[in-house]
Amino acid sequence: MACAVGGCAGCNVRINTANGPAMKRVCVDEPVFDAASVVF
Predict the structure, then answer these.
(1) Is-contact 13 26, C-beta < 8 A?
(2) 18, 22, 25, 27: which is closest to 39 by C-alpha?
(3) What is the pLDDT of residues 16-40, one digit of tens each?
(4) pLDDT at 1
(5) What are the residue ranges spanned by the domains of the chain?
(6) Dihedral of CA 2/13/18/37: which sign?
(7) What count of other Cβ atoms lies within 10 Å of the Cβ of residue 37?
């Protein structure tokens, strides 16, 4: 079970941003990401 506060980093999602690729946490940063920005 995940921690839900961002401490475990088990929910990292790699996304493309204007400044290049970045890692975001689903539990802290956003629950929903634009599918066009997610690196699958």
Answers:
(1) yes
(2) 22
(3) 999 999 999 988 888 899 999 999 8
(4) 54
(5) 1-40
(6) negative
(7) 14
